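Here is a typical sample entry:
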Amino acid sequence: MRLKNLLVAAMLASTSLVSSTALASAKEVLVVDFIAEPSSLDPHVQWNTDSFNVYRNIFDNLLTRDDEGEIAPQIATGWDYLSDTRIEFTIREGVTFHDGAPLTAEDVAFSIERIIDPEFASPQLGQFNQIEKAEATGDNTVVVTTRGPYPVLLAQLTKLSIVPRHVVEAVSKEEFNVAPVGSGPYRFENWQRGVEVLLTRNDDYWGEKGAFPRVSFRAVPDGSTRIANLQSGTTDLVSNLDNDLAAQLEGFGVGKVLPVRGERIAYFALNVNQPPLDDPRVRLAIAHAIDKEGIVEGILGGFDAPLSQLTSPVSFGYVEGIEAPAYDPDRAREILAEVGGAARTEFTLFTTPTYDQRVVQAIQQMLTEVGLNVSIETTDMGNWMQRMQSGPETIPASAFGRWSCGCQDADGTLYPLLHSSSSWAYIQDPEIDAALDAARTTIDSDERLELYRTVHEIVARETYIIPLYQASVIYGAANDVEFSPLPNENLFLNRVGWSGE
């Protein structure tokens, strides 16, 4: 009930449109505090919240989602299927990059070809590898060819940022990362490492312009500091709040809590190639040892919701009725006793401060209480991302993670985490591979749903990975900020308004 009331209040207090009045009266600099700085501002190089919430305001995407979650035009104004495997996009005319050069169909085709190039090694490759090629077929048309019917194409292209070919080919990868040039509603101004990324409004933007002349994204790892900044008026919008911080903000009377249950899922990854997790009995014991309900209610304050599958209810591919091993610590102890001494083999639980360490420590304690030997290893987000996509033999033994594809389709989560071709995956299960491959080439939505049911059931049976909960996104905002958090976690600055004078 508390979450429902907060959601209703957030909807009433927020708006998705920036009015001309807000444009005239908004403060000079909107200050946004995140938990960590971006690991990259090149939109094809990395995919984590602290990166994409910055760079997606510098770049336009081929498509986008509106505030209702529907796929909507952005750089592409329309699209037509020429066949089951070829789709023609009409490219918006009159769009310019921040250096004044026109955005062309060639830039669109180049951007797609760049991200699907295996040698470029984008961590997003698994979400775009069904695209065979992209060709500019006219001044304002691009034809994308897929390897087969690909029902997820439009959903995935809502994340495809358009980069300027003439800039990318003229500079090094690192040079583009530290001085990105896009066509979005905000221009890159400066990146002071460890302190802030500063953006300036693009007053020549073709679409809805931002209300704020400048925006400062700051790295503030400590949650209490983010709240204190908001309460003192030095910050306008803060992310990554937990329930305790949200309650603190509510009680203070300055600022407001803006929550939404999103498509992001929290999970406990188990590398089946490393002992003792190569024994399915140990993995089953771990599943029985983790109290998801206790984590959600006792630690997270009921903002989140327990999950039995690796797909959120707001995404296509969520299947009703999937049953995962129930919380039963006594059964976990019995299983581990059957395994014997091998179950005491020490393994690491890999994490990063970006994630809620109360949850990580609770999982460690739950596993320790049933007789497992688990130690926590912590690193920064950039290194966490790098090691978690290093291949099945070197991915840490276990890890707490949170995943959002931004596409609201199971393909964007299940394929990178489970398909044997993905650098994130640590299993090789032919049945899962076959189901995932079929699901991304089957147009019929009912058939796709049954294929995802198969995947969810195998994961639950083999305990390859343990779904934990549907994560809630909780922002804190100044009273004058007008903002509605989205389930896909996108922070579009030109959808943020200001009601103050």
